[in-house]
# Entry
Amino acid sequence: MTTLAPQATAPQIATGPIDTRSALRLITCGSVDDGKSTLIGRLLVDSKAVLQDHLAGVQRHGQTDLALLTDGLSAEREQGITIDVAYRYFSTEARKFIIGDAPGHEQYTRNMVTAASSADAAVVLVDATKLAWADAALKLLPQTRRHSLLLKLLRVPSVVFAINKLDAVEDSKLAFEHIGAALREFAALAGIPVTAVVPISALKGWNVVDASEQAGWCGYSGPTLLEILEGLPVTPADSTLPFAFAVQWVEKFSSSADTSQGRRVFWGRVATGGVQPGQSVRIMPNGQTAVVAQVLNHVRQPQAVLAGHSAGIVLDREVDVSRGDWLLADGEGEALSGSREIRATVAWLDDETLVPGRVYWALHGHRWVKAKIKRIVHRLDIHTLAEEDANQLEPNAIGHIELTLQEPLATLPFAQSRALGSLVLVDTASHRTAGALLVQ
# Structure
């Protein structure tokens, strides 16, 4: 794979220490009833992020039901499960957090994938009471393995395993030792970088915000979960890659006598690289070229803009550009030239089985193209991590496929760029989200 160098005309990129001050986007995930909603509730309550009247509204039988702080849908409250991703915001003296409670049920895997796709970190909850913790060769739950693999596929940079409900087992130290060893062994085989493994009791609040009341509980003397989260870095923007920009909205200027530039502003978010006046760009898919005449930031002030930030771009002449088109760096070789053949890893989310020959809508940025499933290369066995030959993918399966597109798309491997390397497949009849694709 060719390494892409920064553009000569790109804005200067500030270098410095890893950013641990910006708001951290994180999710909790894991199997059903592992305590994800309760953990978030504990974080909110112990960090003083919940008002008293809100806290009074989640009382059940004289006790606070922490899970109800995040389960907002009526169906979630009635069934005691999490169905959709619920986002909550809280802050400490050290930093701000945006936390998402992802559902644990297998049928809601698509919701978990949506939340993880933009996360900087993930806390994978493991319920100690569900495992044969006394057995040194214990097996992890399938959904724990599936969610962990999805986090790797989605390039979530920081993964923390939190072993919950250790207060409810006979030998908490032995349970933490055996479960922690099983998690580390699995992560090593799967190539998942583990930031930390921490024992907690979300219900009692041990090692969540405050340390356990029992000194050396589980033989652990490290930082609490919140202290770990406060030190995690945010995902760096892809500022060193060639410039790429998906047009989301086209704004027309009022009538102007100025002929030195076009009369439309193309708004969107810079996916990779950076943009400033004087850069040469190529429009995808029509192939025309132009020069950037003006760049506006999100408050309409002239300013060079880097990846991850919104921008309005005015070109030096009138060019046919619509929502869904891409503005790409011109003269960057073949890296962003576009292709109609794509190999990708897919997390299959639809209820219908994926088979070769089916046609779907593929969404890349804001651009829709028809995509045909050319071949299913193999399926990943989440238990053994082996790649198995397959001619179809069942709901919630993970595998590798080949696609043929009706029109070319400018993509990069997902390992290089989250923005350019991700696509969504949508059923052409039902309009359901069918699959999450990560370009290889």
